[in-house]
Amino acid sequence: MNSPRGFAWIPLLIIFGLLVAGGAVGGGVYLYEKHITPGTQLVQDTVVPNAPVTENSIVADTTSGPAPFTVGVHTSKGGAALKGYVDFGDNSGQVDLYGGNSCSPTSCSAQHTYTQPGTYAIRLLDTGKLACNVDVQSSCEQVLTSHTLASVTVVVTANTSAVVITAPSAGAILLADKITTVKWSAPQAVIDSFPADFNLILFLYVQNPLIPGVNIAGIGDGNSFAAGSTQWDIPGAIAHHQFNPGSYKIVWQLQAMPKDPARMCAVRQGGECAPSVVDSAVMQKAAKMHGETGQFSIVYNNPG
Questions:
Q1: How far is Cα 86 from Cα 95, in angstroms, rounded to an integer?
Q2: Which is nearest to 187 in space by CA: 164, 205, 208, 169?
Q3: Which of 22, 137, 219, 227 has the most crowded CB, counting CB atoms within 10 A?
Q4: Could you give the maximum distance between any two Cα atoms of the chain, in Å?
Q5: What sign has the CA pseudo-torsion 44, 47, 49, 55?
Q6: How confident is the model over 197-213, as pLDDT tens digits?
């Protein structure tokens, strides 16, 4: 019985045998029915296998931690550097390792910071190969496909004990003549742990990593935590405090104050005003919450 439009009908049993023999499942050989005339041999196309190759390796410096979580990964194959594209699994794009700047003779490296909790699969992808996808009018439609060479999983947990400065991020480059935005957040559990009749205030200071503990400049004058951000006048800070562009970090200190100022003088101790024992405990709890960002750079001209 002739097939319509020149199709060659092949028994299902034969197709199944060819698929198994050709390794269509994980083997990299894909069989498809061509628009061919009866009697023409079935064509098979070989593409790059989709299954990871055991020699390929991607290793993470650490595989779990609280947000913000910075991870470094290193790729190699048989003791030599392995190039490709690193996909960190959080829709942040891919890091290109083909430039060579992040590669040594033995490995290629990339770094990324996760700001949200979750489980992420970090994948090393190849450049992509032209593969036959759909048979169109007796010719193979070529599509660019990429394949996972190796992967590693990291788990980012919620940071339930501290404020997170989300901008500037570690490694950021800030311009000395521009105003930038400093942003922060905290898990809802942290916010809810303070009474609603207290204001949360965030103090921000700039420090040189080489001179720990010394505040070079302040950012804002006690920032309302609820605001979530403030503007940092970098050129004004440089002019006023006379510090030079270079590597810096931001240290933060949380403070809780009763919304009713009269509560700061609820009792008198030795002739001095003092908050109640309960309010004092809340204030001391906030005072224990402090931290710092990763290092960032302030430059006169953006090298990028």
A1: 5
A2: 164
A3: 219
A4: 109
A5: positive
A6: 999 999 999 999 888 78
Backbone region of residue 128 per phi and psi (left: phi > 0; alpha: psi in -120 to 50; beta: other values): left
Which DSSP state fits 2? Answer: P
Query: From CA 126, how far away is CA 145, in angstroms rounded?
Result: 9
Quote the mean pLDDT of the chain: 77
Cα 150 to chain centroid, rounded: 18
pLDDT band at 147 (very low <50, low <70, confident <90, very high): confident
Separation between Cα atoms, residue 119 and residue 140, nearest integer Å? 38
One-letter amino acid of 68: P
Kindly tell me if the per-residue pLDDT of 184 is higher than 80: yes
User: Percent of the chain beyond pLDDT 70?
Assistant: 72
Could you read off the pLDDT of 97-112 as tens digits, one per residue? Answer: 876 668 888 888 998 8
CB hemisphere CA count around 276 (13 angstroms): 8
Q: Is the bond leading into 68 cis (omega within 30 degrees of zero)?
A: yes
| CB-CB contact of 73 with 122 (8 Å) | yes
Q: For 26, left (φ over 0), alpha (ψ -120 to 50), or beta?
A: left
- Cα separation, 97 vs 84, in Å, equals 5
- Which residue type sits at 26? G
Q: What is the pTM of this model?
A: 0.49
The tokens of 1 are what?
């019985």
